[in-house]
Specification:
The chain is α+β, with helices and mostly antiparallel strands and 303 residues long. It has 3 domains: 86 residues, Jelly Rolls (Sandwich); 78 residues, no CATH class; 107 residues, Sandwich (Jelly Rolls). Helices cover 36% and strands 28% of the residues. It is built from 8 helices and 14 strands. The strands form 3 sheets. Strands 1, 2, 3, 4, 5 and 6 form a 6-stranded antiparallel sheet that branches. Helix 7 crosses helix 8.
Length: 303
Amino acid sequence: MGLVEKTFSQGEVIIKEGDIGKSFFQIVKGKAGVYADYGKADPFRIAVLEAGEFFGEMAIIEEYPRSATVVAIGTVTVIEITEEDLNAFFSENPEQIIELMTHIGKRVQSMTKDYDDAKALLKQLNGAEEGKKKSLFSKIKKHIDAYQSNKNQLTDVKVDPYGEKFESLKSDRTGKTETFTAGKIFFKEGESEFRKCMYILKSGSVGLYKNYRKSDEEKTSEMNALSIFGEIGMITFTPRSYTAVTESDETVVEIIYREDLEDIFRENPLKIELILRHLSNRLRCITIDFLKVCKEITENHGN
């Protein structure tokens, strides 16, 4: 496979918000800005990307329109990877599998922090007097700007990002598959060890909990086949955000270790595609949740 290398000059648009993407990019040299509402009176800069970083991947992983515009800052050299060449790209550059997963995983972490901050601000605003609200103006304005520039992303997200394409993986037992009874704890919230693996749930159910077995225990979600959990801790080496517990007997999971990802791709690339689609969908969902809170801040406290 011959990768296409392209060079863009200062201010040139590399990808455009709303376009249908058939390829994604990795920066070889230089920097690029990521914008919402680019070309309008008050564009919103979301991020600055540097050498080694990817962009545009969500459009081909989930087949959604581009969610932002990416513009060259100075001279930028990128490689373009088409949808058709993705498997060949990973075959020739297997180390890029974990690099791409890490890239999306860190974005999920960052957006989750923004979402948590927005929820905390909304709670503070709802209980604050007018004088106190004025002191929070800079925080309020930040969230208003985020909403106004990105509200086009407030669209429905597929509840099931996997679809029929991955149905065969439910019965696949070629990996490190184990069966557990109800009550099995895979990992605990805040745990810093045992972060080297993630899980694909093949059958049964798994609950994710905050403050598990404490007085303020909260069950945040219950997963059924086909679901993925534990991936962010494995990818980014950060403490677990939840406690994961089996909710039924005969719960079958595949245990995937970070160091096995390249071999898994060679044996069954569909599993890698499943993980990437899950990460992309998770990022899209948390982004929409964040914007919904920003919308509430804008409509209730923006004046």
